[in-house]
């Protein structure tokens, strides 16, 4: 299993609308080959921070999705006025070892 963790911090007061956009996301990734699930988290000690964890069969499936036009389309629901803290965007990749 391959896991991608993306995180970012919202700089302005749009975190409620960003979270709502994730709740109402278009589910474009759901039928991507190799996709297993998406979890969207926000730490209780920093509600302006968002973490997205996607789980895949393998890294190649993730890379194919990441390069697709549907990947770009999946971000269109994020409110246009959202500003991020500079340097807060991070992407990390993991291999699952155990349950």
UniProtKB/TrEMBL annotation:
Annotated ABM domain residues: 2-94
EC annotation from Swiss-Prot or TrEMBL: 1.14.-.-
Q: Which InterPro entries match?
A: ABM_dom, Dimeric_a/b-barrel, Heme-degrading_MO
What keywords appear on the UniProt entry?
Monooxygenase, Oxidoreductase
Instruction: Give a single Pfam family match.
Output: ABM
GO terms (molecular function) for this protein are: monooxygenase activity
Which Gene3D superfamilies is this protein grouped with? 3.30.70.100
Coiled-coil stretches, from where to where?
none
The name this protein carries in UniProt is Antibiotic biosynthesis monooxygenase
- Organism of origin is Rufibacter glacialis
């Amino acid at each position: 299993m391959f896991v991608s963790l993306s995180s970012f911090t919202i700089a302005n007061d749009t975190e409620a609308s960003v979270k709502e956009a994730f709740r109402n996301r278009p589910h474009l990734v759901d039928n991507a080959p190799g996709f297993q699930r998406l979890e969207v988290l926000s730490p209780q000690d920093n509600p302006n921070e968002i973490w997205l964890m996607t789980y895949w069969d393998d890294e190649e499936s993730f890379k194919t999705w990441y390069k697709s036009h549907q990947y770009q389309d999946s971000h269109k629901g994020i409110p246009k006025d959202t500003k991020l803290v500079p340097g807060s965007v991070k992407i990390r990749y993991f291999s699952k070892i155990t349950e």
